[in-house]
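It is worth pausing here to work through a concrete case rather than discussing structure prediction in the abstract. The textbook approach is simple: state the sequence, then state the predicted structure, then interpret. We follow exactly that order.
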Amino acid sequence: MITKEEILALDESSFKRIIREFLKIDKSCYHCLSCNNCTDCQFCNNCTDCQFCNNCTDCLICKNCYDCLTCTDCTDCTNCLTCKNCYYCLTCTDCTDCHDCTDCTDCYGCKNLKNKKYYILNIEFKEEEYFDFIEKTK
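Step two, the predicted structure:
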């Protein structure tokens, strides 16, 4: 922990570095809190290795995402929750490896779906079948 005396003895560049470390502010990010290694993000919270994201929370390795929560390795997604490796998805939840899906939940390896739930490779499954398959593939 830094003391008051140490703070007062800092030059400007050292002070800015300490503030970035203390707040975990990444270069060229705006109003981000507790983010690590992010670039050109705005209003994000607790994200890591993200680029060009806006208003995301707890995301990891995402790019060009907006309003996402707890997503990993997603690109160009908006308003998604707990998605992984998704591209161009909108308002999806718990989807993995999906592309251009909208309002989908619990989909895996799907593309161009809208308002679907429990789909694998664009094929509908019963809820129990879906989760049995997901558990088996972990």
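Step three, interpretation. Residues 80-138 form one domain. The chain has two domains: 23-70, 80-138.
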